[in-house]
Amino acid sequence: MFSRMFARTSFKHAVVEGFHPLVHHRRYATAASLNQTEVAKFAAIADSWWDLEGPFKPLHAMNPARLTFLRSTLCRHFGKDPFSARPFEGLKFVDVGCGGGVLSEPLARMGASVTGIDVVEKNITIARLHADLDPVASSIEYRCTTAENLVEEQMTFDAVIALEVIEHVSAPAEFCKSLSALTVSNGATVVSTVNRSMRAYTSTIVAAEYILQWLPKGTHQWSSFITPEELVLTLQRASISVEEMAGFDFDPLTGQWSITDDISVQYIGFGIKNS
User: Fold this and answer.
1) pLDDT of 244-257, one tens digit each?
2) From CA 142, how far away is CA 104, in angstroms rounded?
3) pTM, 2 dp
4) Shortest CA distance to 102 belongs to which of 159, 16, 165, 39?
């Protein structure tokens, strides 16, 4: 099915001071994929985005592996040098569901012109505050909006990236259509999520949320997980052809994540927008 498989806080105080007066909710009734329950869930822990020992600790730990996959696939697709310090120079990326900017910032440092969007206004406030600490990251355009709204504005990007987002939306098919509409012809769309498997249920919900308590209880709903086959079909119907897929594996001894060909739990897919 695939062409090939990829082988395997001082700031926190500034955040609290910075966003507290701005906290209020916007409504995005036109966004068909928006899940208000999920929005409220992440708004409740938004001030912890850059707390490396907080609820987003697993995401920070996974980031190097995610970036390795992105560097490899996107450099190959766009004909860029993967060994360059700024391989994404000249490319426009959008980070959909950017949260506090954990992925947007390194993408900007790798040379991309980055737009980060999120429906939680607290997340965007925190992302802006943290980006301002770095002259390169401060170039990121953060917006509190939805992918659907960007489509209405007729915005397009060389690469559309939505990592660990699709399992939190109410209408995955509509969400993927929006991602496709934001991607230029022959551009790249990258999506990561959690497989709906018993192994994923055991590791991401039972272990991560209840036993190890890495994540707040209720962060994930097993019924919202998406199998790789479902993701490929959904993206295909949205004119995105998945070309490469890889899994993420966690080593409890080192506390590090690595890329693997095992997609039974967490996985990532790279696709190309059909011309």
Assistant:
1) 999 999 888 898 99
2) 9
3) 0.83
4) 165
